[in-house]
Each structure stands twice: as C-alpha cells, then as structure tokens.
Write a structure and sequence with these properties.
The complex is a heterodimer of chains A (about 325) and B (about 300). Chain A has helices at about 60-65, 95-100, 120-130, 135-150, 155-160, 170-180, 200-215, 225-230, 250-255, 260-265; strands spanning about 15-30, 30-45, 50-55, 75-80, 85, 105, 185-190, 220-225, 235-240, 245-250, 315-320, 325. Chain A is an alpha/beta fold and about 325 residues long. Chain A folds into 2 domains: about 15-100 and about 185-325, P-loop containing nucleotide triphosphate hydrolases (Rossmann fold, 3-Layer(aba) Sandwich); about 105-185, no CATH class. The chains are: A alpha/beta (about 325), B mainly alpha (about 300).
C-alpha cells in the first residue's frame, strides 16, 4: 500500500498538458448527455489557460475530466496526457497518486470545500503527510510555509483556525495553500473568485498569477468572468455547448474576437464607461445538451445566422497565428 | 525556540476585545454543556446514581438478598430500613442500589453496541451507495416495521430469558434507527464539496471515511444514541417486568416493580419506588441528551 504507483517524470519533450479530442458523456439508465464534445488543447509548463463560457457549457466538466474527478456515470473519450502520463487510461486506484501531486484543484466555494470540523493546518498537513510521507509535525511546518506563501496574515495563529472562523478571502487563500501543498505541476481552478467580493477577487487573482510564475505551474482557470480571464490568462479558450469555439492568446481573443459568441460575451459585459448605454445581451438560452442542433450549436442565438450554419458543425480554422475560431463566416471581413 | 516564544507574545497581545485563541468543536460543546444548569443538575443526579451502582457493596446498608419474614413490607422511614422493605423483607434501599447496576448496564450496553454496529452499517451504506446501500437499508427497514417494544419482547421470547439474551434483543432493536441516522448524515456529507476536495488532493476512500465522514457523523449519532439510553432502560425494565429479562432473585428495577406489584394495595409507596428510579434515570438522560443537542449545534 505504501508504494507510489505512478512515477511522475520530471522532464518530457511533449507539452506538459496535451488533451486530444476529449469528450465526456454522462450515461445512466434514463439519460445520455454529451457534455464535452471533442476538446483539444495543449499547455506548456508555466502557461495559463482560461476557459471561458456560460453556465452549463462544459467548462467545469472539462476541468474535472483532467483529474478524472467525475461520477461513475461519466464516460470519457479522447486522450489526456499530462507530463507524459496517460491520465485517461490510468487505473482508478492509481489516480490517487497523481491527484494532489501532479494535478490539484481549487474549488469555487471556499465555504463548503473545507471540512468544518478540522483546522486549516490539519487539513493542509494531512495531504502533505500522505503524499510526501513525512511526519505530522513536518507536515504542519509545511502548512505554515504554505499559509505564508499565500499571504495569510498571522499565519501561525491561522493554522489552528477552523474554516468558519475565517473570512471568504482567507478561506480561498487556505484552499489555494491546500492545493499547492504537494507542489503540483498543474493547478486547476474552478471559478476561484466567483464566491468572493470584488476587492478580494483581484487580490486572489494577483496572488494566483504571482504563485503561478513563482512556482512555474501550468494553470487552467475556468470562469465566466471576462475580467478574471483577462487578468490571469495568457491563452484563452471560449467554450460553448461542450466545444471550444474560439481559442488564442488573450489579446487576440479579447481585441479581435472572430466568433459571434465571443463578440456577444464581450458586448454583454458591464463596465463603468457604459453609463446610460443600453445593454446588449445574447438572446435566448444555451441549447439543451441532450438535443443539440445539427449545425453550429450557437446558430439559433447567432445574430449573423445564415442557412449554411444549420448544415454541419464548422471546423476550427486558424484565423491568424495561433488564433482559431469555429464559424462559417470567418473568411468575411470581421 | 526563541522565535516561537517571540510569536507567542505577539499573539497574546491582540487588539482589545478580540479572542485570538480558537476553540475546537468539542471544546466549545463541552464549554456550553458545563454552563447549562439543566445539564449540570441532571449530570449530577445521573453521576450519583452511577456511582451508587458502581460502589453498591460499599454503600448499600444491608444485604440485598437477605429475606426476613418478620420485616415484610415495612413502610418508608423505618429506623433500620430507610426506604422500607419488599414483600420478602429485603431492604429496598439496598436492592434499589444493587438494581441500578443491572438497569444502568441494560441502558448503556445495548446502546453502545448498537451505536457501533448501526453506525458502521450506516456509514458503509451511505458512503458506498448503490446496491450495498440498498441491501443494508432495506434490511434495517424490515426491523423498522415492528414497534421497538414488541420487537424486543419477540426476540427475547424466542431467545429465552436472561441477561445476555435481553442484551442481544435490545441491541437488535436499537441498531436500525442508528444505522438510518448514520446513513442519512453520511449520504449528505458524501456530496459535500470538501469530500470532493479531499479526493482532489489524492485521499483514499478509507481516509475520507475515517477523516471526514466519521468526524462529521459523530455528533448527530452521539446525540441520538444518548436519547436512546433512557428508552433502553425503560424497555429493559419492561422485559424484566414481563419475566423475559433478568431472573429473580437478582435485583433489577423492572423486575422489582413486577414483584412489588402484588403488594401495591398494602404498601403502594414501596411498590412504586423502582418505577421512580426508572423515571428519574430516563428523565435525566433525556434532558442531558437535549442539552447535548443544544451544545453541539454549531449554528447557535
């Protein structure tokens, strides 16, 4: 039981994360839903990718699929290779040895993602003790270092604090400390700032960016907040109905969006300079994943809808260097 | 070490009016409990009864088994026998003290056993879910279909009278409700984010069960189990009363109530004394369990 089943290679020639044609289906007796339909991306160590999209577009499921943290009803397709390890075909009992050590995750709700009956220190130390096979006191020492790393004031005292005694921001910092406990190579963040208020949000984002550069981790952040996305990501992927519809560097996607959905997202953002102006939301609701339209999934809501949109799903086309979009109208001038 | 002392000093001088040291869940619960007058009084009474039962040979003024035809059914306040004597002339006070041993044992032991068995079954059912949950919970549902007293009487009736047999039957009676409580709490906890978070840091199934589930389930189970103790005492007494529990001449409150019943017209006060003891014990146990519930409530 003591052996670590999967050796994590230190150096590989491939990109750190290589996801090819990932699909996730939830199959049970009375439902069969394709939540993720062929997502491909790769990410180098130290890179930050942001997956952007509406609720129910499959962002969180994509993220959880990377560490196979899905209920047993989920069926995975495609390939997930992280640091040379084929995560998709790893036996279930070996997943434990990569979770936390190779990949770890920050959850959306710091209120519920920490166990109310243990102190912060215990919860962080626990994971260190398990993965690094050190004594409890060494684990606690590491927990203290981590709390200092995530800039929790009077860290020593906070070690013995229970989650309910901390504010939302401190809790999220503790959550990050827990995720970083075993020096993971990949950090996944599932809407890490959604439950926090605006002033704390920016602090947490700055902290995450700082940590990511300092520790050289690859980071994937899922969010529906464009501000968050711009703040932290080098690369951006816009997701709609289980597919990436536009990918590219943050600047390209934000400044030269080519897909009408990305454009719609940008238009529906509210900011200070808009006082008095009408809001321009995307009409309608995301499609039912169990009953997707035959062509482009966004076609029913698209303001530039054409008959050819309903034919078949358009392919990803490179519009400029490393900037891809999935739309039939790409060859028209933007 | 010097660094440690230095930081301790800064901790000990926080801004005014703030409490820097945090209490653990159990410390808080204990603190609240020790400030609750009802819990203190009931705890005191129960402790007295417990101590009396444990040190019965030292405390009891007379031999509880020595009969005397000349001193039958003496009233309360007799110079030699303070609480009078029973229908065979045995000292009632001594018999009540000795009877506490059996009655309290029959109150606590089955509940402790049932907590262990039911708790384990419930946690396993709740954590594993699916077919295992189905199998365990449907079997406990079968036991649920019978009223608890009837079930205890039926099982004891089949097994025959005796201490061990009534222990077995009472344990069987209390296991299903405890399993159900444990199962519902575990199912609830299993879907909490912190269990998923633990899984995301690479925790194994067993570590999640022992670390996260067990520590969160303990409170609710403890509260329920403590309220069951009074019921166990009453049912055990009932079994003895019906002749299915402890057999005479052993002293046990339920059994004493049964034998003294025949003298209820001659010496009514003597006859109800064992009943009073059962009442006091189960009442204090109930009130303590209430206080326990209040003190473990995190939201208050």
């Amino acid at each position: 039981m003591q052996k670590i089943a999967v050796e994590i290679p230190t150096k590989t020639t491939q990109p750190l994360i290589d996801v090819r044609d990932l699909s996730v289906r939830f199959v049970s007796r009375d439902l069969d839903i394709r939540v993720v339909n062929g997502v491909s991306f790769s990410l180098e160590a130290g890179g930050a990718l942001c997956i952007l999209g509406e609720s129910g577009s499959g962002k969180s499921v994509t993220l959880r699929a990377l560490m196979r943290l899905l209920p047993p009803t989920a069926q995975l397709g495609g390939d997930i290779v992280i640091a040379g390890i084929n995560v998709k075909s790893l036996p279930a009992q070996d997943l434990r040895s990569i979770r936390g050590r190779l990949i770890s995750m920050i959850f959306q709700e710091p209120m519920t993602a920490l166990d109310p009956v243990f102190t912060i220190g215990t919860q962080i130390a626990e994971s260190v003790v398990f993965h690094d096979r050190v004594s409890y006191s060494a684990g606690r020492q590491r927990a203290l270092e981590l709390l200092e790393l995530v800039q929790i004031p009077s860290a020593k005292r906070r070690l013995d604090a229970y989650p309910h005694e901390l504010s939302g921001g401190l809790r999220q910092r503790a959550m990050i400390a827990m995720a970083l406990a075993c020096r993971p190579k990949v950090l996944l963040a599932d809407e890490p700032t959604t439950a926090l208020d605006a002033t704390v949000q920016i602090q947490i984002l700055l902290l995450m960016r700082e940590l990511q550069r300092e520790l050289g981790m690859a980071t994937i952040i899922v969010t529906h907040d464009l501000g968050v996305a711009c703040e932290v990501a080098d690369d951006m992927a816009v997701m709609y109905a289980g597919r990436f519809v536009e990918t590219g560097s943050s600047t390209d996607v934000m400044e030269k969006p080519r897909h009408p959905y990305t454009l719609g997202l940008l238009k529906s953002t509210v900011h200070g300079g808009m006082r008095g102006a009408e809001l321009d939301p995307i009409p309608g609701a995301p499609p039912d994943l169990a009953d997707l339209p035959p062509g482009c999934a966004f076609a029913p809501r698209c303001p530039k809808h054409e008959p050819q949109c309903d034919g078949q799903m358009p392919a990803m086309v490179e519009v400029s260097r490393a900037h891809y979009a999935r739309c039939v109208r790409l060859n028209e001038p933007a | 070490m010097t660094a440690t002392t230095a930081t301790t000093i800064t901790i000990e001088a926080p801004p005014k009016g703030r409490r820097p040291i945090s209490r653990s869940f159990w410390q808080t619960a204990w603190r609240r409990l020790s400030r609750d007058p009802v819990a203190l009084v009931c705890g005191g009474i129960l402790l007295l009864i417990l101590l009396a039962a444990i040190f019965a040979p030292l405390i009891a003024p007379h031999d509880p088994y020595r009969t005397s035809m000349a001193r039958r059914l003496l009233p309360i306040g007799d110079a030699r026998h303070w609480l009078g004597t029973d229908e065979l002339g045995r000292d009632l006070l001594s018999r009540l003290i000795y009877g506490g041993r059996m009655s309290l044992f029959m109150g606590f032991a089955p509940v402790v056993l049932a907590t262990l068995i039911g708790g384990t079954l419930g946690i396993v059912a709740g954590y594993c879910g699916g077919a295992i949950n189905m199998a365990i919970m449907r079997v406990t549902d079968v036991f649920y279909a019978f009223p608890s007293v009837l079930l205890a009487v039926a099982i004891s009736g089949v097994l025959g009278a005796g201490l061990v047999n009534s222990l077995v039957s009472l344990t069987l009676v209390f296991t299903p409700p405890l399993a159900r409580i444990a199962e519902s709490v575990t199912t609830q906890i299993r879907n909490q984010d912190y269990v998923e978070a633990a899984r995301a840091t690479g925790a194994s199934g067993w570590r999640i069960v022992f670390g996260h589930v067990l520590s969160n389930v303990t409170g609710p189970i403890l509260i329920y189990a403590s309220s069951m103790i009074s019921v166990a005492i009453v049912i055990a007494s009932g079994l003895s009363f019906l002749g299915l529990g402890v057999s005479p001449p052993n002293a046990e409150w339920g059994l004493m109530l049964n034998t003294l019943r025949q003298s209820i017209y001659v010496a009514p006060v003597n006859a109800i004394l064992p009943g009073v003891m059962i009442f006091i014990t189960s009442m204090t146990m109930n009130l303590i369990s209430d206080s326990l519930r209040a003190s473990m409530d995190v939201k208050v």
